Structures are given as C-alpha cells and as structure tokens.
Amino acid sequence: MSALSLEFLGTGTSQGVPVIGCSCPVCTSSNSKDQRLRTSALVRTSSGCVAIDCGPDFRQQMLRAGVSQLDAVVLTHEHMDHVSGLDDLRALQFLQKRPTAIYCSERVERRLRQQFAYAFSEKPYPGAPQFELHRIEAGIPFELAGETWMPFEVEHGSIPVLAFRIGSLVYITDASSIPEESWTYVQNAHHLVLNALRIEPHYSHFHLEQALEMAQKAGARKAWLTHISHHLGLHQEVGELLVPGVQLAYDGLVVSE
Ligand SMILES: [Zn+2]
Ligand SMILES: [Zn+2]
Ligand SMILES: [Zn+2]
Questions:
Q1: SS3 of 138-196
Q2: Which end of the chain is more exposed for a tag (fewer CB within 10 A), N or C?
C-alpha cells in the first residue's frame, strides 16, 4: 500500500442506512454494503492519521477502524451529521493526553462555539472535550500529517462546504454544484470521492445522474460515490448501472494512491 490512503468510515446520508423504522428493500438488505454509517473518512499517511468530519457514528467508526491515535479532525461543514460526534473525541484526548486539533472554516468555528459551548467555556468541567481550533479557508493550502491539503469550495444548497485535494485524492461531500473556480482542484485525480444522494434530484446534494456527469467531467481514474440514502437503491443493483471507473463506496472500503 502506498503512503496515502483513504478509508470510508461512513457512506450514508444524514439518517444513515438502515433508517430507523424503515422496511424498504435497502434498509432490510442482508448485504453489509447496504449498511451505511454517516459520511466520514479517515486519511492515513506515512506520518499520521486524520478524520474528515466527525458525525454521530464517530465512536463506532473509530472502533471499527482500530484508531488509537488521531492527529486531527478536518471539518467540511457544520451540519450535525458531520460534527455531532466531536464529544467522542474525549476518549482519544485522554489517551493522547492533548486536545484534538480541529481544522475548519470561520463559519464552522462560530457554529461549533455555539453547539459545543460547554467545551469552549472559560471553566469547562473536568473531562470536557478539548479542541485546538485551526482556521482554514478555500484556496489556502495547509500541511497536515505530512501532506499538503488544498481546501476548495463547493456549494451545498445555499451554504458553501469545504472539499479537499490531498495529493491525487479529491474528497467532496455534500455538494449540489462545483463552482468554476474550484474545478482546477478537481481535475485529473486518481481517486475522486463525490456525493450521490439518490436517483431523484435534491436541492442540496448531487443525485446519481449529476454525480456521474461530474465524475466524467473531472476525468478521475476512479470515482467513488458516497453520502448515499436508502432511496438510491441496493448497492449491488445500482453498482451494475454505473459506468466504468465509477463505483459506489461502502463502509470500510480503503483506497490508496
Ligand atoms: Zn451530510
Ligand atoms: Zn429504507
Ligand atoms: Zn450537509
């Protein structure tokens, strides 16, 4: 395996799959690839390990991926399916005896200070999570785990979301369009991760047809679809409809450069 890899910790949309109480064929499928935790990924390099997003399934994802050392969490945006697991970083903070570095935009930082006010208070209670915030913005690269990360903006309905290019790997979640100025970072990736919510159009996510169009325009060697809802269909059936070079991601899948 090469030095840079990405593990899909979760590939499900905000409710996850199966959805509570749903008896559709996807939610009752016996194929483990139809079971999708909330969307998140783990980037491993020769010198470290970084989580992209930290949703409500974070604890389970860290246990499954066998993570005991995490260098940082990089956040794409403030929606709860991407940040609500931040409290569970406490376990790693106790182990690593230091606060967790969180990389996020100014807007996301503002929201975190509201949503996790107890962690940012002047006198946090003993054992409260501790975050060391690092401000990032689109178009300004930063170094993390021995790699250069280039954040760029995509549109998620009415809010901007950060996507990342790390070497020849591009990670885009929660996008409904990619602005012209961001295409330079998307082109010619070895691995392109893109969201594809469902078959029907949606106001803040690519649907399948759009994701396929974007994958083709990007010219990636391999495109992986994530942030999938039960409305997309069965992993195996949808997989058979895709064009060469594009595949549905699934929880636990690891891709490397
Ligand atoms: Zn999401
Ligand atoms: Zn369902
Ligand atoms: Zn979102």
A1: CCCCEEECCEEEEEEEEEECCEEEEEEEECCEEECCCCCECCHHHHHHHCCCCEEEEEC
A2: N
